[in-house]
Amino acid sequence: MIDLRVKALCEEFEIEVIGKSRYPEPGQTRSPETINRILRKYGEEHARLALTTLRETANNHVLLDEVGLWCASDMIRARPDVVEKQAGEWLALWDQMPVGQLQAIAQTVSGVLPVRYVLDGMLLERIQGRFGDRFVEPDLFDDRRRIA
Hints:
Strand order of the largest sheet: 1-2
Number of helices: 8
Largest sheet: 2 strands, parallel
Number of strands: 2
C-alpha cells in the first residue's frame, strides 16, 4: 500500500505509480517507497524539490527510479544554496544535463560501485562547473567549459 502523502505527491506531479514487473515510461515510477524514504528522512519540502527537479525539467521524466530520485535528493542537499537562491538556473541546468545518458554510463559499473554515487559524482561535477568557483575560469582541458 502506498503512503497517502506519497500518493498525493505523485498525483500533484502527475507521476503514475506502476507495478515492479513493468518497465516505466516517462512520467511513471516503480519506486514509491523511495519517494516515501526521502519524504520521511528529509521532509515534504525536500521531497517536493526532488520531484520538481525531475518533473519540471526536460529529459528527466524517465529518472523517476530509485537512483534518479536519490540523486536529485543528493544534489539538492549538496547545493542547497543554489536551489534556494537560483532555483530557475538550477532547473535550467537540469534541463541541459544529459542525466539519462549519465545514468546509463553509471549503470555500467553496477556490481562494482554503487550506481547512485557514480551518478552523483558526474552530476556534481557539472553542477560545480556551473555554480562553483570554476565557472568563471574553467579548466582549460574541460570540454564542457560552460553549461549555460
